[in-house]
Amino acid sequence: MCRWLAYSGEPLRASAVILDAKHSLVAQSLDSPLGAETVNGDGFGIGWYPKGAVAGSIPTVFHSVEPAWNDENVRELARSIESPLFFSHVRAAGGPPIQRTNCHPFRWENWLFMHNGFLGEFAKVKRDLTFAVDPSLYTHLKGTTDSEVMFHLAITFGLVDDPVKALTAMVDHIERVGREKGILFPMQGTIAVADGATIWALRYSSQGRSRTLFHSVDIPTIREMYPEAERLSQFGEHAHVVVSEPLNDLPGVFVEVPEGTIAILDKEGYHHEPFRSAA
Questions:
Q1: Which GO terms label this protein's molecular function in UniProt (predicted)?
Q2: Which of 8, 61, 128, 252 has the highest count of CB atoms within 10 angstroms of its CB?
Q3: For residues 203 and 214, is the Cβ–Cβ distance under 8 A?
Q4: Is residue 204 part of a domain?
């Protein structure tokens, strides 16, 4: 459906991973070997927190409906943005129209959210799910995607106070409503959400066959494995990326996030938690 990338660490020029890596996000927009669709040309988005950001800082977002490989603004921005935490996403539209309000990442206050996947037979559940969004958030829904509804459901269910609990409640609700409508596998995908300091990355599907998700190992470990790799010099000791598929083919640099897992990336590094819906 889509490809996405999340970075956290020392401030990094976004082009290092969006443009310059061997299998960068823009390269994946043209050729995505592990994706459900090979080409992801229905829009691009980037959301970034400012250099020197403090807790609660509001991220900036840019969206374009142009294919990422053909948009000069993408290249200009990626080479100019230097950020300690940013999200980027290339879209393959699965039904909702190609328009800026449907491009990821989505923003609410200091939170960013993006998704790769779909809700099964979304048209059947759209009304019920949308009406479950807190009324105070309803006017913030600008687009027509299932992803944006998911984000606002997570906020409704307490994302600010406990992201893991809120994401669990969101999936439980989606699966309950979907199965009431006779949908066998209501939920599919990988999700990234961030508050400016921590990234939560979820891999889950009702069928147990989720879209791919990987994260990098620690930079000191990579430097030990590849001491002559000059490109590593641009990354700080705490640089990490979470990606739909690896940015290079170097063995050991990326590890796959297991099915039914939420990977949490904070200042201490990664830790994984099992993710199960109670539905």
A1: hydrolase activity; transferase activity
A2: 8
A3: no
A4: yes
Query: In which residue are the tokens 């590849």 written?
Result: 226
Which residues, at least 6 apart from 33, have a Cβ–Cβ distance to it below 8 Å?
245
The answer as to whether 149 is a domain residue is: yes
Is the bond preceding 105 in cis, omega lying within 30 degrees of 0?
A: yes
- Write down the H helix ranges in 104-227: 122-131, 135-138, 146-156, 163-180, 219-225
For residue 33, give the H/E element and its range.
none
Q: Rounded CA gap, 118 and 120, in Å?
A: 6
Rounded Cα gap, residues 189 and 191, in angstroms = 7
Give me the CATH number covering residue 185.
3.60.20.10
* Structural domain of 7: 2-274
Look-up: residue for tokens 């990354």? Answer: 235
**Predicted TM-score (pTM) of this structure:** 0.95
How close are the terminal C-alpha atoms of the chain, in Å?
25
Q: Which two tokens stand for residue 112?
A: 């960013």
In the block, residue with structure tokens 């406990």: 162
Half-sphere exposure of 50 (CA within 13 A, CB side): 9
